[in-house]
Amino acid sequence: MTRPAPPPWLAHALRAQRGPVPWSAVTRGALGGGPLLLAAVLAGRPTVGVVAAIGAMFAGINDRPGSRRASVGRIGGPALAGAAGLLLGTYAGDHLSAVPLTLMLTALGLLAGAVSAPGPVGSSAGTQLLVGAAVGAGMPLPETGWQRALAFLAGAGWLLLLRLAMPGASARNLRSGARLDFRLDFRFDGERAAVAGVYEAIAALLDAAGTDTATARRAALTATLDQAQDALAGPRLRRYASSATERRLHARYAAALPLAEAATALAWAGDPVPARASEGPRRLAVAVRAGTPTGPLPAPSRTVPALRALDDALLRAAEAFDRGEGGDLHSRKRSRAVRLKTVLGARGREYGMRVALSFGVSAALAQALHHSRWYGQHEHWYWLPATAVFLVKPDLGPLASRVLSRAAGTVLGALLFAGFAALLPRPEGLVALVVVSGALLPVAARHFAAQTAVVTVLVLALVMAGGEPQASTARIGETLLACAVILVVGHLPMPGQRGDAIRARLAEAGAAAQTYLDHVLGASGDRETRWALRREAYRTLAEARTAIALASAELPTLARHAHGADEIAATLELFVDTTTACAVHLDDTGRIDPRHVARLAGLRDELTRRHGRVRLRVPDLLTAG
User: Do residues 466 and 46 touch, judged by C-beta distance below 8 A?
Assistant: First the structure.
């Protein structure tokens, strides 16, 4: 007898990520906030160490796998926002009474929510801006606003410095016989692993051609291409690659794009591919990881256009590996006007209003309880709005799952800290807790409840190190109150249609698919532009699928607004797959196959039928007729 499946929101709360322990990140976490707090305690300025450790904690949360260059923006951008929030919140808390302060925090929530719409870095920046503002306004510290901001930046900068200085797993696992300068690999180990992952994903897609797993493998290829693109296109001092190693990595990434295109066309055809077809990309992946020559590559058969395209792409890849000249990353070139349109559009408005209402209501409630002396001698009113910020973030999971995980994690973390506080000496025991918690953060990030438990222990240790009494009970009470606030606010109707953000993402994906198709049917010989448009089409679709999956896992009252959206995204993906197959066939024969025309027309008609049901405007999609 099969057990009934749990509802999506509960299944999400019970699901945890898996993978090897990121020992480099664990080491950085241990060396982050703890040593800073210890140095400040020894210098007689523990509150400076508390703020610096908070900055290091947030930087540790944003310390994700990837290249060093990408980590600069992923850690540094949100850190600047957090410091600005601390500065603004400190001066607002010193000069504004309860009502103006609450209104200011609400307006800041609207801004931070809208800024979070373009992507994960914006979301992290918005979060740190609001948490910094709440902590600055409510945490009793002797330092001035600019001193707090500098201490916060010092903590985040220290962990970022550790991130830039420490080797990653790929650098440590190099083969001893590899002909590679270790210093250069040490600098670009994240980029190297990301590019090698693209070739491995291409090989996996070729192996899956003609099977039920082909669609999932194609989605995995898109994800690895996105990761490699971001790893190579991070912030730089110079416009172009500045070293031979970096230029080789650019060339090898660019060489993977026609291979990915041919593999997608083969998967679209639905026929099994000879086993040796995947051997070439797999050998290229090994060459990228080890820094060795490619050696002879097995040529696939040339019986159909897509296999001929795969063979040609392998030959070009071998030449690119030998030459090592730089190639175009075909990365997203979004202007400031486009980013501003996203912030001010449906996605920014919907999330901005939700964050503003959640942050404002929690701040108002916290101010009312604070001024009514409900807190007694404890000045912790900032915990309530700061907790609400994390609970309202959609990229941490569905609403009910976030609330359940946050409540469970806080209770567990507070109880653990109460036990530690009763047994450990002070302040050395508190410093040890900060060190251990920082080391556990990268592992605990696999589940929101585990991460919450670790952060709770860390924050309570910092609060006590700053001179305040043990506050586990207050932390539990305010977290549960914040959970109740977010559950209510999260289900309130908002101006406009619920689900506008999902419809906006689908509209972006449809427009990208249209642009890609127009270029292919225009018979342009500019393949690099075609690859860039193909990358944008798949990337916007992947972002839409992620948002739809989260929305579909909400409670039924919210999940219903995403009904039918996943089918539209799947149809658009098939449309882009068909366009890719059409492009490969055009390159080989100079004409469009009638099968492609019929498939494009059928998918266009299906999109036309579906979009009315979810009130989505799908752009006019051309057929080849």
Answer: yes
d(C-alpha 86, C-alpha 22), whole Å: 31
Taking the C-alpha atoms of residue 445 and residue 440, their distance in angstroms, rounded to an integer, is 9
Tell me what percent of the residues of the chain surpass a pLDDT of 90: 34
Mean pLDDT, the chain, integer = 83
Q: Which of 41, 38, 79, 85 is nearest to 60 (CA)?
A: 79
Distance CA 504, CA 16 (A): 29
Residues contacting residue 414 through CB under 8 Å, at least 6 positions apart: 456, 460, 472, 473, 475, 476
Assess contact for 337 and 76: CB atoms under 8 A. Answer: no
CA–CA separation, 115 and 408 (whole Å): 29
Q: What mean pLDDT do residues 516-543 have? A: 87
Q: Can you give 134-163 as a three-state secondary structure string? A: HHHHHCCCCCCHHHHHHHHHHHHHHHHHHH
Residue labelled with tokens 């907790």: 387
DSSP state of 1: -
- In 3D space, the residue among 19, 39, 131 whose CA is nearest the CA of residue 85 turns out to be 131
Q: Cα–Cα distance between 80 and 153 in angstroms, integer?
A: 7
Percent of the chain with pLDDT over 70: 85
Residue 108: band (very low, low, confident or very high) from pLDDT cuts 50, 70, 90: very high
For helices 472-490 and 346-371, the axis angle rounded to 10 degrees is 140
Instruction: Tell me the pLDDT band of 26, cut-offs 50, 70 and 90.
Output: very high
Buried-state track 553-575, b at ≥16 Cβ within 10 A, e below 16: bbbeebbebbebbbebbebbbbb
Instruction: Write out the two tokens for 66.
Output: 């990837």
b/e burial code for range 308-344 (CB count within 10 A of at least 16 → b) = bbbbbbbeebbebbeeeebbebbbbeeeeeeeeebbe
Structure-token match 């196959």, residue found = 593
pLDDT digits (tens, 9 = 90+) for 478-529: 899 999 998 888 777 766 556 677 888 888 888 889 889 888 888 677 888 8
Angle of CA points 409, 411, 416, to nearest 5°: 95
pTM of the entire predicted model? 0.84
How many Å from the N-terminal Cα to the C-terminal Cα in the chain?
53
How is residue 137 written in tokens? 């306004």
525 φ, ψ to 5°? -85, 5
CA distance 342 to 354: 16
Name the strand (E) or helix (H) holding 73: helix 68-95
Which residues lie below 8 Å from residue 87, measured CB to CB, with a gap of 6+? Answer: 136, 145, 146, 148, 149
Return the structure tokens found at 613: 């049901």
pLDDT value at residue 63: 85
Tokens of 159: 């962990």
Residue holding tokens 């898109």?
Answer: 222
Task: With CA atoms as reference, report the closest residue to 363 among 355, 282, 14.
Answer: 355
The answer to whether residues 209 and 271 touch, using CB atoms and an 8 Å cutoff, is yes
**How many helices (H) and strands (E) in the chain?**
27, 0
Beta carbons of 443 and 21 less than 8 angstroms apart:
yes
